[in-house]
Amino acid sequence: MLTDAQVKELWEKAQPFPGWEQWQKNYRDMLLKVRGLSDKELATPENQELLWSSDTLSPLGPGGKATMKGAFSDPEVTAAIINVRHFTWPNDPGDRAEAMKDESERILTLVSPRHTLRRPEARLERLLAAILPSEFHCTFSYQAQLRIADLLLPDGFVHSHVLVRSRLRKVLGNEQGLDEHVRRSVFCWWLHAHYEAIKAGQFDVFPATPTPIGPPKPIALWPFARQFKANAALRLLVETYRHVIDTSLAGTTREDLREELSSLDDYNALSPSTLRSLTARVIGLGFLEERDKLLYPTWDGIELVERDAPDVLVHRMLERVFPIAAILRLVKTQPRTSPEIISYQQQIYPRWTAIMAPTANLTWVKALGLVEHQSDGKYRLSEYGAEWEARLPQELPMLPPEATVSADLLEDVAAEVAQELKSSEPPTRPWPGLPELRQGFQEDPQTQGFVLDDSQLSALHHAWHCHPHKRFVILAGLSGTGKTALVRHYARVYCAALDLDLEKHLEVVAVSPDWKDPTGLLGYYNALHETPTFQVEPTLRLLLSAAQNPSKPYFLLLDEMNLARVEQYFAPFLSSMESGLPIALHGQDSPVNGVPHRLAWPRNLFIAGTVNMDESTFPFSDKVLDRAFTLEFWDVNLRAFFEARKAQRQPAMERTIESFHQALRPVRRHFGYRTAGELLAFVEAAGTEALPEERLRLLDQGIFSKVLPRLRGESSPEMRTALATLKRLCEAESLKRCGEKLSQMEANNPRTGVIRFWS
């Protein structure tokens, strides 16, 4: 870390940043514009787009202009950004940095994956720099931030815009006006640009530095002879590289690295030669370096581990792996099928007579988000991929032209690939869209009594259709709100639109709390049987059917998904849906009971998991949440539910039930449609001849049995208010038994400090 005196010396030498005058002027004008906008003006889509997309403060790398237009008019996102202006941040720099980090994370969760699959971390930092110019600077690349932290923050401190600006304020004094904020921010870029000279102690002469405003630099590809030919697509793809780098953080020998990896579940099946090749490739791509006979991560390696977007890996793959760049150039001209992409690779590198290497390259290009899968089965260049392709040189390194391959061979290869990858073919009949499903829900007799929130139907549909093969949704929230019913109804209406038998296309699996591995879903190979056999579970049967019929949809519903640890029993699904690689079912060379040893991930499989978050369930890890869209079900429209019931209406009882529901809602102890329906059914069981007194007694007993046990928790002001409201309600409605129980719960409160039904 630089001393205060060194920081002051460099600050004086850097002024007035020759060549950067126009950039500083534009920077200041941007800050003035943002400061002059009212909250109402700042909230307009045009100004939100300006905040998210302007390169005036600093350009960003690929993805800096990725489509996220929906965020510009999203009221939640806009409100969160406006709130940043007015929030009272902590005085302590460390606390302030943490608070701003938490708020940034909250905003990112509102934006991604709702409006973009990639988390726009750098774009958000740049946006905050425009709103909070005293807390942020204009350097957003990860390597640059590491350099600035190395120069200005104590050892062991991770980079923080807030802490960097606080250090400069401590050394140079408080800023006086926007001009000073701009200079402090630009100074951080200057430190990054001259990092090597500063670290070498060369404070006298600094090389000329080009202005940072401008298009990204072209990628200088390695010559063909130096490039790696293909890149093995191990199961976890990007995460594999991150695991290798993580394992090397403190320094490790190659042998210890391989031993550590082989002890992990994800890698213990790999041979020593595969692990050696993996280590060599991570080194060859520039993510590890050897110092004093130990391997350590490079700064690029640290960036790959710490940054959600694998930009640095994309750069290295284009630069050093043949023919990743050529694939992008190919699909830029026109969309291509998988066989066409693989055949093209074999044409430009005829030594690949098998399809393993070309398929691995295509897998990487897909996993890195450089291409998108179209409904017609072809791949086109994604917006992210187009930004990278634009940085490629006009002439790409290629094998010398004397090596050729015949057209007949290419046709044979294309036919072979088409057969192997037939699961990528488009469906023969288009799957229904949201308008068709809406109409189906309206006309389906079985949904007439079902309370459907159109926003929930829309969210479920789009979550299941926004990715070509990763269709995984978690439905969380209040028990009895129709989570399972919604999935069942959706699957039935969807299949009805395609004239499919629902029973053959929907599997509902109740998750067991004792599941520790995938056998409850995928079955297991029974080597102890007299004739070795494979025990097939219903879920595996559904997967096999989906793989055999790729043009038809299949639905898997995991009920109470988090009664067991999802990461344990669902691990093969999580890995395959992310990577697109097959699921391993057994280790035999040939099928057992018709079950193959590997199963290609079905692109037509729709997975939903219903969950309730309480003391009987397990939380989800980021590994699960990263692969799923989470929909929350807490809002309950009892009035619509009562109106939709075909049974005889009971207005007085309905009002009482709704009053209890509203009283419990502020403490999140309200109940769903199931409970409300069972309360009415409990009273209706007495028949129409029952006297009003008897019906009131039954309602009293029903609420006592079904509703009051939900009222539990610490004795907070909100909980005590809810208790008092319920007592008044019981008195007004003559619910004697419920009133007595609530009084007993209130009396026990001072002694136990909690409110609970059971005492």
TrEMBL record:
Molecular function as annotated in GO: ATP binding
Cytoplasm listed as a keyword: no
Claim: Transmembrane is one of the keywords in the record: no
Domain called AAA+ ATPase: residue spans: 469-639
InterPro entries the record matches: AAA+_ATPase, P-loop_NTPase
Top-rank lineage group of the source organism: Bacteria
Keywords: ATP-binding, Nucleotide-binding
Designated name of the protein: ATP-binding protein
Organism (species): Myxococcus landrumensis
